[in-house]
Write a structure and sequence with these properties.
Length: about 100
């Protein structure tokens, strides 16, 4: 979980360098979506986490962000392997 919080925090800081992450709460079980090649080897895998993220923006306003954080692995087990991550914001509420 610490890697996820670190990656999420870095992404938010790129948008607003004065953002402070106050807390992160997983709202449920992650969704795991592996994909196999014809020989049955997993070559792609997504892990999607439903999160509540409590932040204070650069102006000092507190927010509760709800969304999905996803890690996507592609070409796993090969020299072209890559892992990316993304945030999909579903709602933002001032608190």
């Amino acid at each position: 979980m610490s890697v996820l919080v670190y990656d999420l925090t870095q992404g938010l800081l790129r948008q607003d360098p004065r953002t402070s992450v106050m807390g992160v709460r997983c709202e449920g079980e992650p969704r795991l979506d592996p994909s196999v090649d014809p020989s049955g080897v997993i070559r792609a895998h997504d892990a999607c986490f439903p999160l509540q993220v409590y932040v204070q923006d650069g102006r000092g306003r507190p927010w509760c962000l709800r969304g999905r954080w996803t890690y996507s692995g592609r070409e796993l087990g090969t020299s072209a392997a890559s892992i990316t991550h993304s945030w999909r914001l579903l709602s933002a509420e001032g608190v």
